[in-house]
Structure formats: C-alpha cells, structure tokens
Amino acid sequence: MRQNDSAIDATEAIGRVAVGPTAWRDHIPRERAMLVTLNERCASVGGDVNAHLSALPNSLV
Question: Considering the entire predicted model, what is its pTM?
Fold first, then answer.
C-alpha cells in the first residue's frame, strides 16, 4: 500500500458520508422543524425558549 492510498481512502469515506443517506445536512430540516415547533409552543404559553431548550437531548442543542 502506498502512503497516499490511506489518504485517498479517507477522502472517499468522507465523501460517502457527505452524500450518504445519513448525511448531516439531511438532519438539519428535521431539527430546524423541531426548534420552530418549540418556539411556537413557548410563544403560545409565554414561556422562555432557553428554559425549554434545556429539556432537549444534548444532540440537538
């Protein structure tokens, strides 16, 4: 194996992640929709968005 082969493999793996079905950009609309819903709920009850954000899983905050 040449020294460049591992760098090429890593680049290809990153490319697959970027265009794969679980690409990070595929999750943005879902999380944005959750935050919009959260903001609407907070506004409807007069709550503080930051207080409600603390209840979200760490992966979303």
Answer: 0.28
